[in-house]
Design goal:
This protein has helices at 52-68, 92-105, 115-133, 143-165, 183-202, 230-246, 259-269, 274-281, 285-294, 306-316, 320-325, 359-374, 396-416, 427-441, 446-453, 459-471, 476-492, and strands spanning 7-13, 19-27, 30-37, 331-332, 340-343, 353-356, 501-506, 512-515, 550-556. It has 557 residues and is mainly alpha-helical. Strands 1-2-3 form a three-stranded antiparallel beta sheet, with helices on one face. A three-stranded antiparallel beta sheet has the order 4-5-6. A three-stranded antiparallel beta sheet has the order 8-7-9, with no helix packed on it. Helix 2 (92-105) packs antiparallel against helix 3 (115-133) and helix 10 (306-316) crosses helix 14 (427-441). The N and C termini lie far apart (85 Å).
């Protein structure tokens, strides 16, 4: 029977005073060792910046891979060639740091990048690009090195997927669950590397960009662009409404054990939130949480506004980030030109816009604001329209979680009734849902819908339009055959036989059927009678004088 995988950590102090953590364990019947460094920018493949806690987490990850049977020996990064004492060309670390500062200041590009873009660039550089390229001079980065970086990221993602599929629970140094990079994320890393080296070419540090070329491309599958049917949207709203009440359980307190616990229990019974209790009693929030758990008190859930989130996204088409930024001062419920709200900072060049609100959305929003007021959340002009539980700005991630929660509940209800489940639903799915319904409700007025959702480019609007066109119920086959049949009749000057009937369209309330069997022959009827008098009386029984004039031939039977 094989010995279970176990391991230990040996801490080694290096000559420069930094520490190296030797992770020792057994795998493949042999003793194995991997080293991670405290020193940032080390070239062993660990990325540097490790502490003892992170090293222990990484040892746990290695043992999890061994137990899952997917562990492979780490291939160390190629060490950069020795550098001269005074290199004329900066290293990638030096140049990339200056490049990011220039992007933040607006020196590179037509305007400064925003906070979210800055955070994204820092993630790409700090976690992926710098650990690999930091020690290389710009002129030492060639095509082979760039392709090796791409291969490593693809291999890491594949190994991580295999480990997770085998049941391994892998964590990063902060204890967060590790997830493999998607093809889209790997392509973004390569795009950032290429963007940095593009500016290095312009600054004449290198002659060409080795990160450009077809071998560096990563194929990203086209994501499924879904939107909901109208009944699915209704089910999603109903699910969010049910969850709003389901997340408000009653308290079941035990008898307080001491003075502090008694004071906490008393204020919870008065309806105060834990954060408010901590501020009033001068306690740490963790202390209040401890007493809440100790007394087995289940606090009343805060009002989340789940239905309001789904209603606003599905009935106005705003983006999740725009929903988070809307304040009550931006909403006009009693505008003479119709209820509307203002998007203060639109994402695209369409700029600031005003979105019209339907009567049902107005009613839902009035109820939402009333519930905010009763929950003790701020409802002043500067307050957020859809706040978090403390009255601050709700995050995009929280909005996405609310949509996913409602979609899971609605899907369970659909499946229980024998209906197909909802498609993969995100906040952007509701934006596309609004576009689809708005196109149908406004006779496919693409330009108006674009103005409502803030599209400077009609690509997405027309994409939804094309999907609708495929799904609209139509009688394509019979209509197509009718057109071809009419063309054949015109070509051969075909006349209906005496056994056939002819329908003539009138500009009156109903069509007129002519009984040709009462005539000597079909030639007695003109091809397009101008008036009732042009049809012999025996062929038009029941028609009164004054019947409207005829205009177009409809069909033959």
């Amino acid at each position: 029977m094989a010995r279970p995988a176990n391991g230990s950590i040996e801490v080694v102090v290096l000559g420069d005073g930094t520490r190296a953590f030797h992770l020792r364990f057994r795998a493949a019947g042999q003793r194995q060792r991997e080293i991670v460094h405290e020193r940032p920018g080390c070239m062993c493949g660990c990325g540097g910046g490790w502490d003892e806690r992170g090293a222990r987490t990484e040892l746990g990850n290695l043992l999890a891979r061994v137990r899952a049977g997917v562990w492979e020996r780490r291939v160390p990064m190629p060490a950069p060639p020795a550098q001269p004492e005074a290199p004329a060309v900066p290293t990638f670390h030096e140049y990339a740091s200056a490049w990011l500062r220039a992007k933040v200041d607006g020196v590179l590009g037509d305007k400064p990048i925003d906070a979210n873009t800055q955070a994204d660039y820092r993630w790409r550089l700090s976690n992926h690009l710098l650990p690999y390229f930091a020690g290389y001079r710009l002129d030492q980065i060639d095509r082979q090195l760039c392709q090796a970086f791409k291969a490593q990221k693809l291999r890491e993602a594949s190994e991580l997927r295999a480990a997770i599929a085998a049941g391994a629970d892998l964590r990063d140094r902060f204890g967060r669950r590790r997830r493999p990079l998607s093809a889209s994320s790997i392509r973004k890393l390569i795009d950032t590397l290429a963007a940095v080296l593009d500016d290095a070419v312009e600054d004449e540090h290198i002659d060409r960009n080795p990160a450009r070329g077809k071998r560096m491309r990563v194929r990203v599958p086209k994501p499924a662009r879904t939107f909901l049917e109208m009944d699915e949207l209704v089910a999603l709203v109903d699910a969010a409404t049910d969850q709003e009440s389901a997340f408000r359980p009653a308290r079941s307190p035990r008898a307080p054990a001491d003075g502090t616990a008694a004071r906490v229990a008393t204020r919870l019974a008065e309806g105060l939130r834990p954060a408010e209790i901590a501020a009033e009693l001068g306690l740490a929030k963790s202390t209040v949480s401890y007493h809440v758990r100790r007394l087995e008190i289940t606090p009343v859930g805060d009002y989340v506004g789940r239905r309001a989130v789904i209603e606003i996204l599905g009935r106005s088409g705003v983006r999740a980030s725009e929903l988070c930024d809307i304040r009550l001062r931006d909403i006009r419920l009693h505008d003479p030109e119709g209820a509307r709200f203002r998007i203060p900072d639109s994402k695209t060049e369409a700029g600031i816009r005003e979105v019209q609100m339907s009567p049902d959305l107005v009613e839902a929003f009035v109820e939402h604001v009333d519930r905010l007021r009763r929950a003790g959340l701020p409802t002043g002009p500067d307050s957020f329209a859809v706040p978090n539980k403390t009255g601050g700005r709700m995050t995009r991630q929280r909005v996405g979680q609310i949509v996913r929660d409602a979609a899971e509940r609605a899907t369970a209800d659909f499946v229980g009734r024998g209906l197909p489940p909802l498609p993969h639903t995100t906040p952007h799915s509701l934006r596309r849902t609004y576009i689809s319904i708005a196109l149908l409700a406004n006779n496919f007025d693409v330009k108006w819908v674009m103005s409502q959702v803030g599209h400077a480019d009609s690509k997405m609007t027309l994409d939804v339009y094309a999907q609708l066109e495929q799904r609209v119920e139509r009688s394509h086959g019979t209509a197509f055959d009718s057109l071809v049949r009419t063309a054949r009749d015109q070509l051969h000057a075909r006349r209906p036989s005496a056994s056939e009937g002819v329908h003539w369209a009138t500009n009156g309330p109903r069509d007129v059927e002519i009984d040709l069997s009462q005539l000597a022959g079909p030639a007695d009827v003109p091809e397009e009678p101008a008036d009732l008098q042009d049809i012999p009386p025996m062929a038009r029984p029941g028609l009164e004088p004054g019947t409207p004039r005829f205009s177009v031939v409809c069909s033959t039977n």
